[in-house]
Hints:
Blueprint: E1 2-5, E2 11-20, E3 23-29, E4 37-42, H1 46-55, H2 58-67, E5 69-70
Antiparallel strand pairs: 1-2, 2-3, 3-4, 4-5
Amino acid sequence: MRELTDDQQGCWRVEVLFASYGAFYLIFSPPGAGEPYKLAIAADSQLEAERMLAAMDETTLRQSLGQAVAFSETTELGF
């Protein structure tokens, strides 16, 4: 798990969620009751996905948040 402060000083919790074989989501959870966002990433295992998240710098995390879609939206993975 990581934490990210966006340009508007909002704090987001970032975690990895299993999606399908070889695919995981980065889940961006805002404080309070706001809707979370998700971004699909490719990884061979949960451990690899967690390591990818840990290796991301702040700029990459912010870019990932900018590319993420609302959790309720369907992505190319079908969910």
